[in-house]
């Protein structure tokens, strides 16, 4: 199995006895089992040359006992996590861990039994997607595009942000899939807060509508933002909108050119961020108060990053967002976000909702 | 503010200069702002005798600038988290942390600037609810009861687990509130997995239906499980069901008696777990493969615990579940879960859906 192989290579390179996988996203990636909570620690994987274990408790043991390549170690009243770790420590001394995902108190417990080695590689384990993963993200994007088309019919005076968010969620769930995060819906001035908390604000004529939502299809996420105008857009809005759009297009164009020439590997997240960001600043607007983009897959936000400090090299198989924005307090904001993937000879856009200025 | 006072007391008792609050649930508890992601680190609170800070980035700064008692420290390209920590370290040396919520890599960064002191108290910061919090949980429970009543009308041959889960979710969201976790719906044999992953299994006559779901009302969660029979229950099911019900009732009765006598403080989570668990075992069934109960509030699972090893003392103001279960692989399972709170002179049941064996 290719995915496990990456970890075995890391184990070998770092001269480890085993690697402990703790993040739920990596557990999904390696087992396809996606029912563990993202909010609490319910399972670990332990991977080594000889054997792989899945450590969990009685709530899950029947379900996970069918997962191939992993032997179940069940935490119970007679067999605590400490007992299991102690027993494993007879053969395992040097243990690789996801240090960004193990808490200080968990670390203290693990250190009783193992020498812990942080494995930065595991943070980027999923950074290059295979074709199957890209197709899942594409499918999620496609349902997102349909949701965007659908929701425009629901926009009318007096509707609340929460009602629109609910309609988006319903549309997605009725399509048999899940949302990848709670939809962000911001009307008017609220759109100046990039991560506005969708509330009871009612829509009035001549307001900005910012919609940021995503779909989860077979564990893979999409993410898209569109900003439309309810009424007749004035010059100020047009200027802001077109500046954001141009900013996004310039970043996409540059990436596409590099991809066509097989040179995307020569560019990092920082330089693409700079192209989009500088276009906004040189037009007299404030800098983007967030990164230009983020990788996406099993998590909505994962490597690579496109930000002013990112050294992540952009390679074929990566899937990420490009989402410049301009936010003016007490006026409103515009963000346009699309997902792209780098192919061997081009940049492929995965979201296809229209990006031209739309008045509804 | 009473909630901050608890932390200031902890700071003083531990002779600290400040406490760093990192868990989103504690941030919601202290600020009422609930828009930070539970999946990624987007904010910290820093609390000290003199001043309180909220550390976050530009996606949130406009929204959080209105939160009283907290001064915003904004992470930006020119002012990294490291810069902020360095500047704070001029006055702060000993820093209390939620060691179960700070990762090893975050810990490494913090240790450059501070001496870190794990604060176990913060894990139980929210363990005693005030009346306002209890009323919110009660309201969540009430909507959950309505959802249970509603969903029974939707049960019919051929319906899938996912369809029932969707209907529950829709009912809750149409009530203007949120779900506290994705509903667990298990038909037939699937009910033998305590945390079954709701799927496409279709309902047939004479099957068990296990429903475990909750509501979130103004950031406070409910949680309830009911197991009903689709068709005519046979003796085997009746025996299992009534054993679970009696197990639950015996735990509730014992807690109620102790509360009436003002003696609940003399009992810990372990002894209540034992009452319910031993009833199941002495009837010849396997032990409960999970805890008898868990506290609930801003998180679905929080202290206190009612488990074979829990030393948590059960005090007035605590809100928790009592949820015994019997699970027979290749047959099915029964769980009955209700929420209770300890009052000064009685145990109050917060969920009110009928618990008698129901055939639908």
Describe, in plain words, how this protein is organized in 3D:
2 copies of one chain form a homodimer. Helices cover 32% and strands 24% of the residues of chain A. With 360 residues, chain A is an alpha+beta fold. A 6-stranded mixed β-sheet of chain A has the order 4-3-2-1-5-6. In chain A, strands 7, 8, 9 and 10 form a 4-stranded antiparallel β-sheet that branches. Chain A has a 3-stranded antiparallel β-sheet with strand order 13-16-17, with helices on one face. The radius of gyration of chain A is 23 Å and the shape is globular. The termini of chain A are far apart. At the A-B interface, helix 3, helix 5 and helix 7 of A face helix 3, helix 5 and helix 7 of B.
Summarize the structure.
2 copies of one chain form a homodimer. With 360 residues, chain A is an alpha+beta fold.
List the helices and strands and how they pair.
Two copies of one chain form a homodimer.
Chain A: H1 2-13, E1 18-21, H2 24-31, E2 43-47, E3 52-57, H3 61-64, E4 71-75, H4 81-88, E5 94-97, H5 104-111, E6 115-118, H6 131-152, H7 161-174, E7 178-187, E8 207-217, E9 220-221, E10 224-230, H8 235-260, H9 269-282, E11 293-295, E12 302-306, E13 319-322, E14 325-328, E15 332-335, E16 338-342, E17 347-349
Parallel strand pairs in A: 1-5, 3-4, 5-6
Antiparallel strand pairs in A: 1-2, 2-3, 7-8, 8-9, 8-10, 11-12, 13-16, 14-15, 16-17
Helix pairs in contact in A: 6-7, 8-9
